[in-house]
């Protein structure tokens, strides 16, 4: 886990990174499902974090499991919210996160919602960003948007516009800063992180079965107190 040790780096960046953005008009997140049993999960990932990439498949397997309390999949029984935190252990992590507002707007107002496909694409292609050596920022932006364009069938020019303030229709830079600021304000200094009904999990479960056991524990504490 990119953990609390990163907090030292955040402190050093406070002088160098002037993140003067206001309160978000809405929380910078992607949500799916409904809390039919009053249980909500909040997941915080860094799209370029190897631990986030490694643990997400088991979390997705958990969401696909049938929960015998509702006889529905877990995904259809809970509200699950994803937020993304670009940790500053590699300065180019900002490049893939800068496209998050684009995908957020397409899900809210467009005809095609591909945020989950983009998240999975980032996890699979982290080496494109993290392995870049002796590459200029513009060259890396061109490389990344070219890869995303091919992988998700999106016009590259549409993606490139997000990096040019004169053409950007999504206020991408400031909204990415807002996403960063929101997470830091909530003391998210490592990834992946998970919350259940607003309470931070001490450890991010590594297996789907561990997630399911946690879900039963939370459900029992709410609806079956005699079980304890």
Describe this structure in words.
The chain has 10 helices and 7 strands. The protein is an alpha+beta fold. The chain has one domain: Glutaredoxin (3-Layer(aba) Sandwich), CATH 3.40.30. Strands 1-5-2-6-7 form a 5-stranded mixed beta sheet, with helices on one face. A two-stranded antiparallel sheet has the order 3-4. Strand 3 and strand 4 (72-73) form a beta hairpin.
Question: Can you summarize this structure?
Answer:
This protein is an alpha+beta fold. The chain has ten helices and seven strands.
What is the strand and helix layout of this fold?
Elements: H1 6-16, E1 30-32, E2 40-45, H2 50-64, E3 66-67, E4 72-73, E5 79-84, H3 94-97, H4 100-109, H5 115-124, H6 126-130, H7 137-152, H8 156-160, H9 172-185, E6 193-196, E7 199-200, H10 208-223
Parallel strand pairs: 2-5
Antiparallel strand pairs: 1-5, 2-6, 3-4, 6-7
Helix pairs in contact: 2-5, 2-10
């Amino acid at each position: 886990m990119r953990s609390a040790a990163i907090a030292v780096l955040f402190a050093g960046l406070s002088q160098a990174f002037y993140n003067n953005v206001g309160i978000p008009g809405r929380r910078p997140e992607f949500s799916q499902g409904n809390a039919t049993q009053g249980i909500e999960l909040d997941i915080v990932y860094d799209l370029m974090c190897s631990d986030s990439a490694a643990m997400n498949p088991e979390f997705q397997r958990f969401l696909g499991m049938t929960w015998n309390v509702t006889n529905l999949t877990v995904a259809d029984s809970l509200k699950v919210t994803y937020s993304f935190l670009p940790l500053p252990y590699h300065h180019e992590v900002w490049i893939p996160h800068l496209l998050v507002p684009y995908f957020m707007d397409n899900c809210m107002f467009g005809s095609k919602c591909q945020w989950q496909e983009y998240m999975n694409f980032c996890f699979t292609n982290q080496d494109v960003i993290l392995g870049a050596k002796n590459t200029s920022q513009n060259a890396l932006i061109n490389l990344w948007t070219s890869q995303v364009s091919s992988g998700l069938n999106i016009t590259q020019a549409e993606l490139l516009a997000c990096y040019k303030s004169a053409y950007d229709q999504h206020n991408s830079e400031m909204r990415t800063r807002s996403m960063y600021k929101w997470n830091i304000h909530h003391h998210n200094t490592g990834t992946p992180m998970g919350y259940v009904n607003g309470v931070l999990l001490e450890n991010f479960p590594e297996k789907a079965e561990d997630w399911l056991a946690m879900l039963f524990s939370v459900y029992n504490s709410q609806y079956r107190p005699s079980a304890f």
